[in-house]
UniProtKB/TrEMBL annotation:
Cofactor: Zn(2+)
Naturally occurring in which organism (per UniProt): Chryseobacterium soldanellicola
EC number: 1.8.4.12
Keyword terms, alphabetized: Metal-binding, Oxidoreductase, Zinc
The protein's name in its UniProt record: peptide-methionine (R)-S-oxide reductase
GO molecular function, one term: metal ion binding
Keyword Transcription regulation: no
GO cellular component terms, semicolon-separated: cytoplasm
Top EC class of this enzyme: oxidoreductase
Length: 174
């Protein structure tokens, strides 16, 4: 009898362990395994030097996010993309946009009319002889793109973003 109980108990414990295994390994951790600062839940402000980011980020992401380069128009993966879900900072995982604020614009970069107010902040940008407003990630200070006042209602804004600075997560994966 004791033996039987042990077997039942052992089987039960084993099935528990098996059931719990997929929960421990989330896709978030998989994607960010080489980036210790990446988190879709932490809001703590990061203060990481560019020397450190250079070791972590892919060169094309580093150029846009840390040196304010712009990806070529019509080349980004989210330019013509309309799935339902959320957009996070590709550098640190901070929430930036909801897909319901994305609109189809002909400018060649993914465009949104509204950002997560806790996701981004703004800086005046006078480079290249233009007066523009730069959009940056509130958590890691990475460059995301610019915001213009020729967007659709209800805000009239057009957040013109670099696809490479964004990471999309569909609702179906949550
Ligand atoms: Zn960020």
């Amino acid at each position: 009898m004791k033996f039987l109980i042990s077997i039942v108990l052992f089987t039960f414990l084993q099935s528990c362990t098996q059931n719990h295994q997929p929960i421990k390994t989330t896709s978030m951790e998989n994607e960010a395994k080489n980036n210790p600062y990446y988190s879709r839940t932490a809001a703590t402000k990061l203060d990481i030097s560019n020397d450190e980011w250079r070791k972590i980020l892919a060169p094309d992401l580093y150029a846009v996010a840390r040196e304010a380069a712009t990806e070529r128009a019509f080349t980004g993966k989210y330019n013509e993309f309309d799935e339902i879900g959320d957009y996070y900072c590709a550098v640190c995982g901070h929430h930036l946009f909801r897909s319901t604020s994305k609109f189809s614009s002909s400018c060649g970069w993914p465009s949104f009319f509204e950002a997560d107010k806790d996701g981004v902040y703004y800086k005046k940008d006078s480079t290249y002889g233009m007066e523009r407003v730069e959009v940056l990630c509130k958590r890691c200070d990475s460059h995301l793109g610019h915001v213009f006042d020729d967007g659709p209602k209800p805000t009239g804004l057009r957040y013109c973003m670099n696809s490479i600075s964004l990471e999309f997560v569909p609702d179906s994966q949550k």
